[in-house]
Amino acid sequence: MSEQAAIEAVIQTYFDCMFESSSKKAKAAFHPGARIVGYLGEKLEDMSVDDFAAFVASQQPSPKDKGEEARLEIVSIDIAGQVAVAQVRDDYLGHTFLDLLSLLKIDGEWRIQNKLFHVEA
Prior knowledge:
By secondary structure, the chain is α+β, with helices and mostly antiparallel strands.
């Protein structure tokens, strides 16, 4: 599998964690020390992976189970050796998010190291 394809697979797992309300997939996509940070309205959110995994798992029924349309757009991926940055747009909980994901390849596996998010709509 190419580096691009491996990164796209991690991004898909990340999206699936939210769409399926899966804490297991959240923990598979993110490095354990990752942070998830951004503004929801005026409030700055700063979550650990465990916090984020618990949050997505709490969204019941999941967007998938509610029959919502899945929307994930990979805007760009830039790879430099064993680090990468991806920009993705997705719909979640009635909002459109623009996510900036930094990724690291550790022991041959790509994982999201940090996520910065911006609510577009």
